[in-house]
Design goal:
The chain is an alpha/beta fold. The chain contains 11 helices and 12 strands. It folds into 2 domains: 234 residues, 3-Layer(aba) Sandwich (Rossmann fold); 62 residues, no CATH class. 33% of the residues lie in helices and 26% in strands.
Length: 318
């Protein structure tokens, strides 16, 4: 049984008579206890997909259509009050900018306590005790001291641990991690990834891990979805993706990082640049950069082709 099943999700922005399709027909699923990697270049729609799942899209953006079925309920059909019980309770989210996600005028312990008091109906004293234990769980040696500190008194990695603590405080079955290691040094990044991996393994929760870093995805995720210009181009197991990627864009990503034919000295960049969402080309959005483009690619958007269990691709080559 799938924990989360997203079908034909469309989120657009409406401004000055223009329609910008930020999330365009995206479908994917996440099983229980699974980590699903959502990968793509900056501006491809990864974060907007996550915000759509959480129903946090702000005007002039709007979820136009689709289904987001979580634990048997379509989140898009729920009232805002019903959604508030799920958001932060059953689904936690780790944002990519801890300094802007945390309130600078409140102590970090109080910010974690707030989530517990809202969703778990505990008083302030009980919440404090739980937060102390939670701070230990996310790797703080002096949890009582950290509880009383403000965000500016913590390092970037420590602030990210606080956001992780908030996200898991109510025991969610799904956590969405949006570029959680952005702007962290390599050593701290490794610590955060190991922490998240331990939390997934110990609690059997599921995770959507949003990143542009394929190296992290390879180590951390079981399945992967590749996004480009608001669309999902490929879904695959991580093992099969790194052995034989299906979409030309996926092949280009791997060649730009690992090189051609296993020769790491011969890195090959994808020509051109990601199109603006307000100026998408007709047909396949990747065709201006694709070495395999055919006339049909310039005229009609390719449909999804299932290649095997858990494998599909949006490309006319198949």
């Amino acid at each position: 049984m799938q924990l989360l099943d997203v079908t034909d999700l469309n989120t657009s922005f409406f401004a000055d008579g223009n329609v910008i399709r930020a999330v365009d027909g995206v479908s994917f699923s996440v099983s229980k206890s699974e980590t699903f990697g959502l990968v793509g270049e900056s501006g491809c729609g990864k974060t907007m997909t996550a915000l759509s799942v959480m129903r946090l899209v702000q005007p002039p953006g709007r979820i136009v259509k689709g289904q987001v079925v979580f634990e048997g309920k379509d989140l898009l059909s729920l009232s805002e009050r019903e959604m508030e019980k799920i958001r932060g309770g059953r689904i936690g989210m780790i944002f990519q900018e801890p300094m802007s996600a945390l309130n600078p005028v409140f102590r970090v312990g109080e910010q974690i306590s707030e989530a517990l008091m809202i969703h778990k109906d505990v008083d302030k004293k009980e919440a404090r005790g739980r937060v102390i234990e939670l701070l230990k769980q996310v790797g703080f040696d002096e949890p009582e001291k950290r509880y009383t500190q403000y965000p500016h008194q913590l390092s970037g990695g420590q602030r990210q641990r606080i956001l992780i603590g908030i996200a898991i405080s109510c025991g969610p079955s799904l956590v969405i991690a949006d570029e959680p290691t952005t702007a962290l040094d390599v050593a701290t990044e490794s610590q955060i990834i190991n922490l998240l991996q331990d939390l997934v393994n110990d609690s059997a929760m599921s995770m959507i891990f949003i990143t542009h870093n394929l190296n992290i995805t390879r180590k951390f995720c079981r399945r992967i979805g590749i996004m480009y210009a608001g669309r999902m181009l490929e879904q695959n197991s991580v093992d099969d993706f790194f052995k034989e990627p299906l979409h030309p864009y996926s092949k280009g990503l791997l060649s730009s990082i690992y090189g051609l034919m296993g020769d790491q000295k011969r890195l090959t960049a994808i020509p051109g640049s990601v199109p603006k969402l307000a100026e998408l080309p007709q047909g396949c959005t990747f065709h201006p950069r694709c070495p395999y483009a055919m006339p049909v690619c310039r005229e009609e958007e390719p449909i999804i082709k299932e290649m095997g269990k858990g494998q599909w691709v949006r490309c006319y080559l198949y």
